[in-house]
């Protein structure tokens, strides 16, 4: 191990009251071919291309035009900063953000795991995908199709030898399909009036809470990109990809088909903050920022703008559009009239596949966060592996989703608004915790700087404000 130079860069100060002290190892060298480890930002964007991109934002555009697209850009940019602060801690320690929160408060991880479950117990993404399949084939019961989808998702996630690798490949196919839809829509479906409306959205932005309701507007901002627990799981995804100190931590594998898991008893790994390690840190940090900006931010913004423009071109001013999933059927039918039958069917097919892939990602990250938290905080000495916990949590979430569907709760937009409001509340809380953790636990040389702290405080105040006013708005409707 390299000797620490005389320069005072500070030291790690991870609390050890609730969890053991981390081991000390050198920070690994960043790979020379960085394209080989691009992926977590793409997975984050791909899983996030779901309710917000195919349902919430297009519905908003069908009702008020493109005047609120600025909210999507703000939401995505703020989430980029949140993701980077989540990644900062994991790059430096190999621990997830939830484990870091547990060091400062013994049950913070449990709080966020429960909130993530509350947001995702309603299988709105699976029901949305199922509904689009019925539009595609002209028949079928969305409830039973969604139940079959949940079972397939459970099988995929628990039989993949390395779960992250499978998820990355699934999302890559999804992004390619959406890119194809973007290219064809720009060529055949989007007309001049929509481009003019996009210009008006830049010069005359609006905040349409009065027309749409505060809950829907908040949900759209919170789900512009990732939102809620999906931001937190960036820790787990970059660790499985081998970013920074995460290279020392075993990956999540299938207990059925996967490789033997390494010993996961050590919570994390810190590095001596000497000149050599800090030089490596600067390269890791630069790469992580570029990876998130060029994948998560770019893919998400482009997709939201495109799907909103497509909805504007086909639905704006149509009085038949209602506040439920059926507006996607009208959109597809209109595309068949404007372009041809083939384009409407393609729209429904890609939408159904995209929402299915998103549902798989949501089941993954919900179960992944809970398995990591339970193993690291409550079952450290147990012989039960994190992979086995993940297996049971995946199937538990699938089973609960099936119960919800059998109980008759199948209206996707309502379920998604509930989920999105929960996500916004979570982001309010962990914005503050991230600032506290990254400004105290890490050496001075790699702590969160003042200008990034300002963004976290903006996120804390903005999502806190939105959470309070959404609750008030919903109480008024009772």
TrEMBL record:
Region (Disordered): 1-25
Record keywords, A-Z: Membrane, Transmembrane, Transmembrane helix
Keyword Transmembrane recorded: yes
Spans traversing the lipid bilayer: 37-57, 64-82, 108-137, 144-165, 171-190, 293-316, 345-368, 389-407, 413-433, 454-472
Domain of life the protein comes from: Bacteria
Residue spans of biased composition, Basic and acidic residues class: 1-11
Segments forming a coiled coil: none
Protein name, per record: Mn2+/Fe2+ NRAMP family transporter
């Amino acid at each position: 191990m390299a000797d620490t130079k005389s320069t005072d860069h500070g030291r790690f100060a991870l609390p050890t009251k609730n969890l053991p002290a981390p081991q000390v190892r050198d920070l690994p060298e960043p790979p020379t071919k960085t394209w080989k480890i691009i992926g977590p930002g793409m997975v984050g964007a791909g899983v996030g291309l779901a309710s917000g991109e195919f349902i919430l934002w297009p519905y908003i555009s069908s009702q008020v035009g493109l005047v609120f697209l600025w909210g999507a850009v703000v939401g995505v940019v703020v989430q980029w900063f949140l993701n980077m602060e989540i990644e900062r801690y994991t790059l430096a320690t190999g621990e997830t953000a939830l484990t870091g929160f547990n060091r400062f408060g013994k049950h913070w991880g449990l709080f966020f795991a429960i909130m993530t479950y509350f947001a995702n117990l309603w299988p709105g993404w699976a029901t949305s995908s199922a509904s689009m399949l019925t539009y595609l084939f002209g028949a079928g019961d969305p409830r039973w199709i969604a139940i079959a989808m949940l079972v397939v998702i459970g099988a995929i996630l628990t039989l993949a030898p390395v779960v992250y690798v499978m998820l990355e490949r699934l999302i890559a196919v999804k992004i390619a399909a959406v890119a194809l839809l973007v290219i064809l829509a720009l060529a055949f479906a989007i007309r001049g009036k929509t481009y003019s409306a996009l210009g008006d959205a830049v010069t005359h932005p609006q905040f349409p809470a009065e027309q749409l309701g505060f809950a829907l507007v908040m949900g759209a901002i919170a789900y512009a990109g990732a939102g809620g627990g999906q931001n937190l799981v960036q820790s787990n995804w970059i660790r499985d990809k081998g970013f920074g100190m995460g290279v020392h931590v075993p990956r999540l594998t299938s207990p059925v088909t996967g490789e033997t898991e390494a010993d996961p008893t050590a919570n994390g790994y810190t590095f001596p903050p000497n000149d050599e390690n800090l030089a490596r840190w600067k390269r890791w940090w630069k790469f992580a920022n570029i990876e998130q900006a060029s994948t998560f931010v770019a893919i998400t913004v482009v997709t939201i703008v495109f799907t909103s423009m497509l909805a504007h071109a086909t639905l704006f001013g149509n009085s038949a559009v209602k506040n439920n999933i059926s507006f996607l059927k009208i959109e597809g039918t209109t595309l068949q009239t404007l372009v041809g039958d083939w384009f409407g069917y393609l729209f429904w097919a890609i939408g159904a596949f995209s929402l299915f892939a998103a549902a798989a990602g949501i089941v993954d990250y919900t179960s992944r966060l809970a398995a990591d938290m339970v193993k690291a905080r409550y079952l450290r000495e147990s012989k039960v592996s994190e992979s086995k916990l993940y297996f049971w949590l995946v199937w538990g979430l699938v089973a609960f989703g099936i119960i919800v569907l059998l109980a008759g709760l199948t209206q996707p937009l309502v379920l998604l608004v509930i989920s999105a409001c929960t996500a916004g509340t979570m982001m309010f809380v962990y914005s503050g915790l991230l600032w506290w953790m990254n400004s105290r636990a890490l050496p001075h040389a790699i702590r969160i700087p003042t200008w990034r702290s300002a963004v976290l405080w903006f996120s804390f105040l903005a999502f806190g404000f939105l959470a309070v006013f959404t609750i008030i708005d919903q109480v008024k409707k009772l």
